[in-house]
């Protein structure tokens, strides 16, 4: 299973979070949860472009990102990482 890293962390409000997979991907889903467990954003990506998520007007704070990836070699993986949105 590959590893996906997100960055930058922290990300400024209105900034972009990029996904950096360790091998080529076909598609991925990024779900962002607040610390209460509610979904605050969900984004799907497909194709060869680097996945990027604009945090928009989401309030500054700590969030949990669940990243589900389908790789071009037929494997898949899920990882959980923290995102900090700064003021």
Can you characterise this structure?
- The structure is a single chain.
- With 87 residues, the protein is mainly beta.
- It has a single domain, classed as Sandwich (Immunoglobulin-like).
- 0% of the residues lie in helices and 62% in strands.
- It contains no helices and eight strands.
- The protein has strands spanning 4-7, 11-12, 16-21, 25-33, 39-46, 52-54, 61-71, 76-86.
- The strands form two sheets. A five-stranded mixed sheet has the order 2-8-7-4-5, with no helix packed on it. A three-stranded antiparallel sheet has the order 1-3-6, with no helix packed on it.
- A hairpin with a 4-residue loop joins strand 7 (61-71) and strand 8.
- It is globular and about 40 Å long.
Short description, anyone?
With 87 residues, the protein is mainly β. It has one domain (4-86): Immunoglobulin-like, CATH 2.60.40. The chain has no helices and eight strands.
């Amino acid at each position: 299973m590959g590893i996906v890293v997100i960055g930058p962390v922290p990300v400024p409000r209105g900034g972009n979070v990029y996904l950096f997979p360790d091998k080529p991907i076909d598609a991925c889903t990024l779900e962002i949860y607040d610390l209460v467990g509610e979904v605050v954003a969900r984004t799907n990506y497909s194709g060869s472009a680097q996945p990027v998520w604009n945090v928009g007007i989401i309030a500054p704070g700590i969030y949990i990102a669940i990243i589900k990836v389908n790789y071009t070699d037929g494997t898949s993986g899920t990882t959980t990482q923290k995102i900090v949105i700064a003021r």
